C-alpha cells in the first residue's frame, strides 16, 4: 500500500491548476477528495508523477444561489452537500443522495466533482445529477464550457472531461415546489456503493396525471443514464396505474454489469424494482 | 477511609479501553527501533505455477535496498512452517516458495530496504518467470482422477481420511421412520482482524539473543516453534505479543513471515519490520470453515432423532498451518449438539486445494457443528410437520442427566437447555410471533422465525485433546506477586487480545485480597517476563487461565494468613481479606493493615522463623474436562421477495456461559460474536474463481458486517455453573458466533417455507434468495 514516488503540488487557483495540468500533461493528475485516486495509487494501478491538489482552491468548495440557480462547487464535500441548508431546501434529492454515500468519514472528504469526474459506474451522485438535469462546468486552457449531465457520462469511468480540463462546478435549477423526489439504492454489502441506485423526480399535473418524470439510474450499466423509456411511459399517464409498467422498462437496452454481488440478470431486476419503488416514493411526496 | 467495593459480577468498563480509544496503545507497527529495516514480500499472482526463474539483480541494485532473497536462497536455512496436528500427508512448508507456488499470495521473494516505499519499488523490479499449471479449487474435484496434484511427493491431494465409525448407526437407520438426507456447506470465511499481522525482530549479536514482536495469540507456543525453525535455544529467544488488534483464531498460528523476519534480522544484524497489508491479509492469513457435509439423519415421526451419519469434505488449502487438519474433528464430535442422539458416525476427507490454508476461526469446528445440528432439527420438524421448538425439546438432554456422555464420546459438564430456550421464547413471545407470522403470510409477506439451540466446547482443556507436537498442553499458568508497596502484579500465561482479562483478572484479584482494582496490574504476552503459558483461544482465557490465577492467589492468601495469624494471634482460618486489611471473620474490627503483612513478608526479620521471604507464587492448572456453554437464539426476519434482501425484525439471544464475572464484557463478546455469525449467514464468503484468483481480495468485495447491516440485540442469560473449574465459568468468546449463524439461516428458510424451499447454502445473499423464490414460484 505504498504509492510510487510523485511530486505534490497544491494549486492556488483554477488557473494555477490548469497551468500545471498543461505543464505535466499525462504525468499530472488532479487530487480532489482522494477517495478513489489514493487507493488505486496505493495499489500502484495509477502512478502519476505529479499530483495537483485542488483542496486549496477555496472557491471550488462553495455552494451558492446564483441568480436562481443552485451552484455546487466541484470541491464541495458530500457532507457539505448533505448538510447545506440551501441544497436541502432547493435540491432535496441531491442532499438525500449525498447522505447515502459511504459513511460520515467518507463524506467528510469525498467531493461531488471528484465523484462525477471519476465516473465509477456504481457511484451514487450521477443518478441524482442526471435526474436533476444538472449542468457541469468544465474549464480548460481554451476557456470554460457547460455540459449537460445527459452528455457528461460517456462510458465506464469516461466523461466529457478532456485531458487538461477541470470540472469546476455543477449548476441545478431548484426542484420546483410540489415535485416529489427520491433516491433509493441497493447497497453492495462490502463497499456500500450502489449495486443499483435510482433517483426520480416527478411532477403531477392538476388532472392527476404525471406531468413529467426524470429518472437517473446508476450501478446497472457501465455508465449512469437517464431512463428515458421509463420517463416516457409515465408522462401523461395516471401514475398509480402506469408506474409498474413504466418501471419494468428501467433496464431496457442496457448492457448490465455483473460481479460476485449481483449478476447482470439480477441487477436488471433490481433496477426495475428500485425504479418502481423510487417512483412510488417520489409520488408519495409530490403535490398536485 | 472509603470502603473498597467488590468487583466480581459488577458491570465494570474495560480497563484496556482508555489506551485503545486514545491511540496510546502500542501495536507491532508502532515499534520504532534504531536502524530498523522494512521487509516486504513478493507474492504469487498464480494459484499454481512452476517458478522457472527469478531475476533479483535490479531490485538488489536499487538504492536503499539492503537485501533480496528468493525461496531458493533460503533453502535449508529455515525449518518448515509448522503443522502440529496429525495427518497422513504433511508437506514441507517453506517460508518462501521453492520451485513452485501453490496459492495466490504465496511468498516467492523478500526485499529488505530502509523504507517501505523503497521496498515496494524494489518488489516492482523483481521479474519472475512462471510456468502456470492447472489449479484445483473445488475440494471434491481435487480428489478426482487426473486432478492436478499440489504436492507431487504424495501422489494425491488427500491430506488425510479420518474415520469415526459406529455400527449402531446402521441399526438405527433401519429402524427409523425416515432417513433425511441433505448436503450442507460451511463456506470459506476470512477472519479479518482490524489489525493485520505484523512482526518485528531484533538480533542482539553480543548476547546472541533474538527478540521477536509479533501480532499473535500464542507468544509462548510461537517461541517454541520459532526456536525449532531457527535452531535457537528457547532461553535465547524472546517473543512479545504487544497490543494485538484482534485475532479470531487467525493469530493462533505460526506464519512463514515470523521465521522469515527473524532470520532476516539475524542474517543482516539489523532490526527488521514486516507489516501485512490488507490484500496480503485476505490472501495469506488463514481462512476459516470451508467444510462440505453430507448428512443422513435417522428420524422418527415424533421428532426423535436416533442416529446421525456424515461424510465431510474439508478444504485444507495448499499447505497445512499450525492446526489445519485438527479443526474439522470438532465439527464431527459436536454435531449432535444439545441432543441425546445415541449414535453418531462420520468420516472426514481432508483435501489440498490451490487456496490459502484454513485453520481456526472464531468457533473453530463448533459453528460448523451447530449449523449442522440446528439445520438438522429444522429439517426433521419440516419433514414431519412439527414445531421446531418441540423437536428440540424432544431431543434435548434433560438437565438431570448432566454430566452426560455424548454420542461423540465427550462429557458435557452441565446444562439446562430447556431453560435457555424457554427464556428466549418468552422474550420473543413465541405464540404471538407465530400468530403474527401467520397473519403476515396471509398478506403475502415472507416472515420467518428461526431458532437455534447450541452447545459448544470451550476451555481446552485436558492436554489429551491437544496434539503432542504443540509443545504445550491444555493447562494454563499464572504468577501473582504482591509487591512491597502492596500493589499486585499478575503474570498470566494467556495472551488476551480483546477478551479483557486485564479487567476480569483484576476483578478476581482485587476481591481476593480486599484491595482496589487499580492496585492490580495484569501483565501478559512477553515470554521473558511471563512464565510459559499456552495462550488465548477457544474461550480458554478465563476458563483455564482464571483457575490458574486463583491457584496462585490461594497460595499467597495462605501465606499471608499464616503471617497475619502470628501477628494477630488468631487462627489463620478465621482471617479474611477486606478493605486493605486482614481481619477476624467474627469481629472485623480486629484487623491489621494488609501493608503490615506485606511489610512482614518482605522485612529483614521474618515473623515466622524459617518462612520463605517475599510474596510471589506461580501455578499451573490443568482442567479435567472442557466446559460446554450453551444457549438459544431466536430471530424474526422478513425476506423481501422482490430483492431477496433479509431484514431483521427481532433478535433475541439467551446465552449460558456459567458464572458471569464481568457482565459488560460478556455482553460485548456476545455482540461481536453475533455480528460475525450473522455475517456468515448473510454476507461473508471468500471467493476464488476457477483459476484460483482471489476475487474477494479487498474489503471492497469481502463483506464484513457494518452496524447498519445488523439488528438490535436483545440479550439475556441463564447461569448454569460449570463443575469443571472452581470459578464455575464456561467461556463466552465464540458463543455468539455459534448460535447466530444457524438461527438466522433457520429464520430465512422458515420465511421461505411456504414456497417449498427446503435449504439454501450460506451466505444467503439477496440474489441467491431472489432466484430461489423465483424458481419456486415458477414451479408453482
Structure report:
The complex is a heterodimer of chains A (288) and B (780). Chain A is of the alpha+beta class. Chain A has 3 domains: 47 residues, 2-Layer Sandwich (Uridine Diphospho-n-acetylenolpyruvylglucosamine Reductase, domain 2), CATH 3.30.43; 115 residues, Uridine Diphospho-n-acetylenolpyruvylglucosamine Reductase, domain 3 (2-Layer Sandwich); 106 residues, CO dehydrogenase flavoprotein, C-terminal domain (Enolase-like, domain 1). Chain A has 12 helices and 14 strands. A 5-stranded antiparallel sheet of chain A has the order 4-5-10-6-7. Chain A has a 4-stranded antiparallel sheet with strand order 11-12-13-14, with helices on both faces. In chain A, helix 10 packs antiparallel against helix 11 and helix 11 runs antiparallel to helix 12. The longest helix of chain A has 22 residues. Chain A starts with 6 loop residues before the first strand and ends with a helix. Chain B is of the alpha+beta class and 780 residues long. Chain B has 18 helices and 28 strands. In chain B, a hairpin with a 5-residue loop joins strand 16 and strand 17. The longest helix of chain B is centred in the last third of the chain and has 24 residues. The radius of gyration of chain B is 28 Å and the shape is globular. Chain B starts with 16 loop residues before the first helix and ends with a helix. The model of chain B has no long low-confidence stretch (mean pLDDT 97). The chains are: A alpha+beta (288), B alpha+beta (780). The interface between A and B is medium-sized, with 22 and 29 residues.
Amino acid at each position: 500500500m505504498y504509492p510510487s514516488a510523485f511530486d505534490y503540488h497544491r494549486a492556488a487557483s483554477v488557473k494555477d491548476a490548469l497551468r500545471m495540468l498543461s505543464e505535466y500533461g499525462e504525468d499530472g493528475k488532479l487530487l480532489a477528495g482522494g477517495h478513489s485516486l489514493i487507493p488505486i495509487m496505493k495499489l500502484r494501478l495509477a502512478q502519476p508523477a505529479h499530483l495537483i491538489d485542488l483542496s486549496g482552491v477555496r472557491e471550488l468548495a462553495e455552494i451558492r444561489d446564483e441568480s436562481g440557480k443552485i451552484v455546487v462547487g466541484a470541491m464541495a464535500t458530500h457532507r457539505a452537500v448533505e448538510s447545506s441548508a440551501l441544497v436541502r431546501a432547493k435540491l432535496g434529492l441531491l442532499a438525500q443522495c449525498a447522505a447515502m454515500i459511504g459513511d460520515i468519514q467518507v463524506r467528510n472528504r469525498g467531493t461531488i466533482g471528484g465523484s462525477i469526474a471519476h465516473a465509477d459506474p456504481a457511484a451514487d451522485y450521477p443518478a441524482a445529477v442526471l435526474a436533476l438535469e444538472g449542468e457541469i462546468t468544465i474549464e480548460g486552457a481554451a476557456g470554460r464550457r457547460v455540459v449537460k449531465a445527459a452528455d457528461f457520462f460517456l462510458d465506464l469511468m469516461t466523461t466529457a472531461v478532456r485531458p487538461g480540463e477541470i470540472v469546476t462546478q455543477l449548476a441545478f435549477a431548484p426542484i420546483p415546489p410540489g415535485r416529489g423526489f427520491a433516491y433509493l439504492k441497493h447497497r453492495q454489502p462490502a463497499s456500500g456503493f450502489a449495486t443499483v441506485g435510482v433517483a426520480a423526480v416527478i411532477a403531477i399535473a392538476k388532472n392527476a396525471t404525471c406531468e413529467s418524470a426524470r429518472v437517473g439510474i446508476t450501478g446497472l450499466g457501465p455508465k449512469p443514464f437517464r431512463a428515458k423509456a421509463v420517463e416516457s411511459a409515465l408522462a401523461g399517464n395516471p401514475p398509480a396505474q402506469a408506474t409498474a409498467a413504466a418501471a419494468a422498462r428501467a433496464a431496457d437496452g442496457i448492457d448490465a454489469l455483473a460481479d460476485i454481488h449481483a449478476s447482470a440478470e439480477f441487477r436488471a431486476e433490481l433496477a426495475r424494482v428500485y425504479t418502481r419503488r423510487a417512483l412510488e416514493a417520489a409520488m408519495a411526496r409530490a403535490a398536485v | 477511609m472509603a470502603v473498597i467495593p467488590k468487583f466480581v459480577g459488577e458491570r465494570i468498563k474495560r480497563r484496556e479501553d482508555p489506551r485503545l480509544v486514545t491511540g496510546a496503545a502500542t501495536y507491532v507497527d508502532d515499534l520504532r527501533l534504531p536502524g530498523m529495516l522494512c521487509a516486504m514480500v513478493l507474492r504469487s499472482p498464480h494459484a499454481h505455477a512452476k517458478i522457472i526463474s527469478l531475476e533479483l539483480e535490479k531490485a538488489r541494485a536499487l538504492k536503499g535496498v539492503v537485501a533480496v532473497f528468493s525461496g531458493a536462497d533460503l533453502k535449508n536455512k529455515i525449518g518448515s512452517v509448522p503443522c502440529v496436528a496429525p495427518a497422513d500427508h504433511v508437506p514441507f512448508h517453506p517460508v518462501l516458495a521453492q520451485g513452485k507456488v501453490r496459492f495466490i499470495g504465496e511468498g516467492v521473494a523478500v526485499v529488505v530496504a530502509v523504507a517501505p516505499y523503497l521496498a515496494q519499488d524494489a518488489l516492482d523490479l523483481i521479474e519472475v518467470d512462471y510456468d502456470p499449471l492447472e489449479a484445483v479449487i473445488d475440494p471434491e474435484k481435487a480428489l478426482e482422477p487426473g486432478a492436478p496434484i499440489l504436492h507431487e511427493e504424495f501422489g494425491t491431494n488427500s491430506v488425510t481420511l479420518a474415520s469415526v465409525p459406529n455400527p449402531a448407526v446402521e441399526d438405527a437407520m433401519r429402524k427409523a421412520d425416515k432417513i433425511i438426507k441433505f448436503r450442507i456447506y460451511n463456506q470459506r470465511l476470512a477472519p479479518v482482524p482490524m489489525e493485520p499481522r505484523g512482526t518485528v525482530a531484533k538480533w542482539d549479536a553480543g548476547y546472541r539473543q533474538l527478540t521477536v514482536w509479533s501480532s499473535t495469540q500464542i507468544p509462548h507456543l510461537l517461541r517454541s516453534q520459532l526456536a525449532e525453525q531457527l535452531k535457537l535455544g528457547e532461553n535465547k529467544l524472546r517473543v512479545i505479543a504487544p497490543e494485538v488488534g484482534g485475532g479470531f483464531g487467525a493469530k493462533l498460528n505460526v506464519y512463514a513471515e515470523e521465521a522469515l523476519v527473524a532470520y532476516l534480522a539475524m542474517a543482516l544484524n539489523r532490526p527488521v519490520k514486516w507489516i501485512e497489508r490488507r490484500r496480503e491479509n485476505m490472501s495469506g492469513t488463514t481462512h476459516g470453515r470451508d467444510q462440505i457435509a453430507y448428512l443422513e439423519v435417522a428420524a422418527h415421526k415424533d421428532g426423535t432423532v436416533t442416529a446421525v451419519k456424515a461424510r465431510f469434505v474439508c478444504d485444507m488449502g495448499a499447505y497445512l498451518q499450525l492446526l489445519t487438519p485438527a479443526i474439522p474433528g470438532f465439527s464431527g464430535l459436536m454435531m449432535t449438539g444439545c441432543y441425546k442422539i445415541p449414535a453418531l458416525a462420520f468420516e472426514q476427507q481432508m483435501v489440498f486445494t490451490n487456496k490459502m490454508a484454513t485453520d481456526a476461526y472464531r468457533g473453530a469446528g463448533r459453528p460448523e457443528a451447530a449449523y449442522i445440528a440446528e439445520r438438522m432439527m429444522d429439517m426433521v420438524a419440516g419433514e414431519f410437520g412439527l414445531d421446531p421448538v418441540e423437536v428440540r425439546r424432544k431431543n434435548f438432554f434433560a438437565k438431570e442427566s448432566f454430566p452426560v456422555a455424548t454420542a461423540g464420546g465427550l462429557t458435557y459438564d452441565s446444562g439446562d437447555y430447556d431453560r435457555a430456550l424457554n427464556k428466549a421464547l418468552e422474550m420473543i413471545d413465541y405464540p404471538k410471533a407465530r400468530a403474527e407470522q401467520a397473519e403476515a403470510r396471509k398478506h403475502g409477506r415472507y416472515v420467518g422465525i428461526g431458532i437455534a439451540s447450541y452447545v459448544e466446547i470451550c476451555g481446552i482443556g485436558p492436554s489429551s485433546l491437544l496434539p503432542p507436537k504443540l509443545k504445550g498442553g491444555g493447562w494454563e499458568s499464572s504468577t501473582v506477586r504482591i509487591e512491597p508497596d502492596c500493589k499486585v502484579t499478575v503474570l498470566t500465561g494467556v495472551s488476551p487480545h480483546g477478551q479483557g482479562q486485564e479487567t476480569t483478572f483484576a476483578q478476581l484479584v482485587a476481591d481476593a485480597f480486599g484491595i482496589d482494582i487499580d492496585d492490580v496490574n495484569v501483565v501478559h504476552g512477553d515470554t521473558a517476563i511471563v512464565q510459559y503459558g499456552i495462550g488465548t483461544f477457544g474461550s480458554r482465557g478465563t476458563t483455564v487461565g482464571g483457575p490458574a490465577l486463583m491457584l496462585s492467589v490461594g497460595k499467597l492468601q495462605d501465606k499471608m494468613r499464616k503471617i497475619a495469624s502470628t501477628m494477630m494471634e488468631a487462627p489463620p482460618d478465621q482471617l479474611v481479606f477486606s478493605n486493605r486489611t486482614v481481619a477476624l471473620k467474627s469481629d472485623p474490627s480486629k484487623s491489621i493493615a494488609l501493608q503490615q503483612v506485606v511489610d512482614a513478608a518482605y522485612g529483614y526479620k521474618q515473623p515466622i522463623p524459617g518462612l520463605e521471604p517475599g510474596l510471589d507464587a506461580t501455578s499451573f492448572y490443568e482442567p479435567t474436562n472442557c466446559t460446554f456453554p450453551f444457549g438459544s437464539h431466536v430471530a424474526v426476519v422478513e425476506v423481501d421477495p422482490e430483492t431477496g434482501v433479509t431484514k431483521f425484525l427481532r433478535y433475541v439471544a439467551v446465552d449460558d456461559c456459567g458464572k458471569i464475572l464481568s457482565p459488560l464484557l460478556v455482553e460485548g463478546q456476545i455482540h461481536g460474536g453475533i455480528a460475525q455469525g450473522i455475517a456468515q449467514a448473510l454476507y461473508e464468503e471468500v471467493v476464488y474463481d476457477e483459476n484460483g484468483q482471489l476475487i474477494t481480495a479487498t474489503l471492497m468485495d469481502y463483506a464484513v458486517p457494518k452496524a447498519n447491516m445488523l439488528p438490535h440485540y436483545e440479550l439475556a442469560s441463564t447461569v448454569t455453573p460449570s463443575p469443571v473449574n472452581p470459578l464455575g465459568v464456561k467461556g463466552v468468546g465464540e458463543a455468539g458466533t455459534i448460535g447466530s449463524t444457524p438461527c438466522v439461516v433457520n429464520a430465512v428458510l422458515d420465511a421461505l417455507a411456504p414456497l417449498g424451499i427446503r435449504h439454501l447454502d450460506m451466505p444467503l445473499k439477496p440474489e441467491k434468495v431472489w432466484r430461489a423464490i423465483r424458481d419456486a414460484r415458477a414451479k408453482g
